[in-house]
Design goal:
DNA polymerase, domain 1, 10 helices, about 220 residues
Length: about 220
């Protein structure tokens, strides 16, 4: 009997990397706030970092609501009662990027094991997992580790649970702040999926890709 070939582990951030986070947020916010939400979104991202860092730990649906409440209030935008929950309500249906299907299927065909390390709750990501084209071997959420990236708990929990050596592991993510920086601190090889054409404050990524179309051959080269 032939033994299955395993390349190692490829871990992913989910929202922004696999799921079109910005489009999902824009559509959700536009349903409760009239007009252009671009300025609100820009401010939202900064406020969310602050809310996630606060203690005691909040579940992510509460982070979403509190961040939207604070951001809208600081910009003089009125929310109707209950509208602060629009992001949590819609998150499981946010669209998957078109390049995800072929990229994940190619990695599976090469023998990679796949995992997600995400700053969300278990119940929120469950809907997203059903929309992804392949099953994942592991999922680590903020709810599991009671912390939010860029804290290192997601990475350490995953590594301890699966007994993964650094040389058998590559992390793939869009967020420089939440993922590339902590992965570099742990000397994990890291692929920055720079979908937004951003400029890195410090060059910490092992490889930079504009999207996932060349992810499978890139990981194969990194694996050697």
């Amino acid at each position: 009997m032939m033994q299955e070939t395993t390349q190692g582990w490829a871990t992913f951030d989910c929202y922004g990397t696999l799921v079109n986070w910005e489009q999902g947020m824009r559509q959700a916010l536009a349903s409760v706030i009239p007009g252009d939400v671009s300025r609100l979104l820009e401010r939202y991202y900064e406020v969310e970092k602050q809310v996630e860092a606060e203690q005691p730990f909040r579940c992510y649906r509460d982070v979403l609501a509190e961040t939207l409440r604070r951001t809208a209030g600081s910009m003089g935008m009125a929310l109707a009662p209950g509208d602060e929950h629009v992001l949590a309500k819609t998150l499981p249906t946010w669209p998957v990027f078109s390049d995800v299907d072929s990229a994940l299927r190619a990695l599976r065909a090469q023998g990679w094991k796949l995992a997600i390390l995400s700053n969300v709750d278990r119940d929120l990501i469950s809907g997203t997992l059903r929309a992804l084209p392949v099953p994942f071997d592991d999922v680590v959420t903020a709810e599991d580790v009671r912390a939010y990236k860029p804290a290192l708990k997601h990475f350490r929990h995953f590594q301890d649970k699966n007994r993964v050596a650094n040389e058998d592991w590559i992390h793939v993510a869009r967020s420089y702040f939440h993922d590339i920086v902590p992965a570099s601190q742990l000397s994990i090889r890291r692929v920055w999926v720079n979908r937004g054409g951003e400029t890195a404050p410090v060059p910490l990524a092992t490889v930079v890709l504009p999207d996932l179309r060349d992810l499978a051959p890139t990981l194969q080269r990194l694996r050697g």
